[in-house]
Amino acid sequence: MLKKIEKKTEVYALGQHISMSADKARRVIDQIRGRSYEETLMILELMPYRACYHIFKLVYSAAANASYNMASNEANLVISKAEVTKGTTVKKFKPRARGRSYPIKKPTCHITIVMKDISLDEKYVEIDSLKKPRWKKKYRAMAYHDMYGGVWDKK
Alphabetically, which GO biological process terms does the record hold (predicted)? Predict the structure, then answer.
């Protein structure tokens, strides 16, 4: 009996109970979905949001999982799936004046990052072979000199 051996092409990293609203984390996740590993790290380092730190750690962990489990190169990794789900809400009561209490609700979220190695996937290998252009570049960038000696481009 012959068995078909399938190579694993995807790895994931999961962060649970991160103390942050799911909407705030989704704002960052939407920017990195479908991008390469190196491009994702650059985007996350330059974005000014608090969620970037947690997502950066998860992307880095998923890349470490890929290099350890599949022995893949980081240049071949692409984020194939990134999702944020709502977690539990931590509820506390803060004492207020006249014996009253005020509820404090701290939302949490779960973040899942799935990375795919495109060198192991047959679909991406076929697309890479089609990258040769079949036509020459028709338009060239023109540079003009202004009267003060500077150069500016015309498109």
Answer: translation
